[in-house]
Design goal:
2 copies of one chain form a homodimer. The first copy, chain A, is an alpha+beta fold. Chain A has 8 helices and 11 strands. At the A-B interface, strand 5, helix 2, helix 3 and helix 8 of A face strand 5, helix 2, helix 3 and helix 8 of B. Chain A binds a DNA duplex through helix 6.
Chain lengths: 235, 235
DNA sequence: CGGCAAGTTGAACCGCCTCAATGACGGTGG
DNA sequence: CCACCGTCATTGAGGCGGTTCAACTTGCCG
């Protein structure tokens, strides 16, 4: 995945591989990291879906973003003293773990790897920023449309999206926690999308009936996801 | 500012200094970067306040975060192909500019500098994530209280905050665009904060009357800002 | 067949928005 | 020195989007 940013040299690939510990299979609904924990490792999600979220004292949950295969998990608080969020799997998943200390050591030898991670983090933040706009300044239907389009595009980049839809294990409750809404309202918004002939989410699968219409509604600009790093500008 | 993360060596400081171009004085309400622009430089804000935001087609504005002295401007889209946001100054300001190309070259020689930037970016993202929670899952008064506390704490870290309040040039409109509300509603919420004896924002200055009460209301946990990098864990 | 998680629908309520008007302040020019 | 102006703050009345509470359905799995 990082390879989308720069073309790695041999030694860089080797260094990267040394970092990755054996893969681990994980059940659905398992906590991978907890908010507030001190020592933090970072994962790469190889298969399955996960969500990164924060909890409030009264039990409300805000999902920061959804992770699909190829994404980092916990990259954000990797260098911070305490994790600022929790991560939970949404489906069965396959992950591999990085150790903080070893990554830091490797970074000193392979500076270009650091730049690649910097790029990945920037992209992740661009996604979070879009969610902020979704919640803050878009109506429920616009924001939800945007979210569904974004996920579709990200899936396509890693080869998991087909035209016209994708397998989507997100429950209405998960979507609600991501959008700052109630599951009940998400249900009604999904119905609106269906009745308008734009998209329908039924039985773990999203079908897009009118891509152009959805994009127009959501004001979806692909630029923040489409980049493949600065490969286009070789050093 | 980056020095809060690691203790730099001599050569690293020198390399850092070579990167920084002459300081530039900028008027209030000047655009520093535009969403969608291709070539991007990155700034450090030395004096004054700025805001980073996105615009929607219908003219609505979402402020992503506020920048105070010591913050990077545009760090997030530094490595992305197109800027995902705009930056505008809110007051008169003093900035110095980095050039993308030269930073990338320097990173190869000084890998620890890369780690420090990675840390700064992580911290910035943690702030954005808090805003997401403010807007998504907190009520208007809780979220606003949280935002005001966060700014106060950040100011204190750079030596600009006094106990009991701080100079705050944010208009109610700016606060509204940050919180996903209308200026009118921000006004009413500020009144509530005043009437509850928690804090009052009048004439470019925020006075905090009951810090503990505010923190309780906002569920403010300082951890996401308090860290000073991994200095505590020398390599 | 029983049980649980997720989805669906209705009715009443409230937080925040919209539209509209007024007030307070600092700057500018006559 | 005052009249004028633009920007920001303040307040009211009415409406909409989204919530809350509650009930019922559907689908899956043992």
């Amino acid at each position: 995945q990082l390879g989308r940013f720069i073309n790695f040299r041999e030694d860089e690939l080797k260094g990267l591989q040394r970092l990755v510990e054996p893969r681990r299979k994980v059940e659905a609904h398992t906590q991978l990291t907890f908010e507030g924990q001190g020592r933090q490792d970072c994962y790469v999600l190889l298969e399955g879906w996960a969500a990164c979220y924060k909890l409030l004292p009264d039990g409300k949950r805000q999902i920061i973003n959804f992770s699909i295969p190829g994404d980092f998990l916990g990259l954000r608080s990797f260098l911070l003293r305490t994790a600022d969020h929790s991560v939970v799997t949404l489906t069965q998943a396959l992950v591999s773990q990085f150790e903080q200390q070893r990554v830091l050591e490797t970074l000193e030898d392979l500076p270009r790897l650091g730049a690649a991670i910097l790029w990945a983090l920037s992209r992740e933040e661009a996604i979070v920023v879009q969610h902020l706009v979704n919640i803050g300044r878009r109506t429920a239907i616009e924001g939800l449309a945007h979210l569904l389009l974004e996920i579709g595009q990200r899936l396509r980049v890693v080869g998991l999206g087909e035209d016209g839809g994708y397998a989507c294990p997100l429950t209405q409750e998960a979507l609600a926690d991501a959008m700052g809404l109630t599951p009940i309202h998400v249900n009604r918004i999904l119905r609106q999308l269906r009745e308008r002939g734009l998209a329908s989410l039924t039985g773990r699968r999203l079908v897009i009936h009118d891509l152009a219409g959805l994009r127009e509604l959501a004001d979806f600009n692909i630029a923040y996801l489409d980049h493949d790093g600065i490969k286009h500008k070789p050093e």
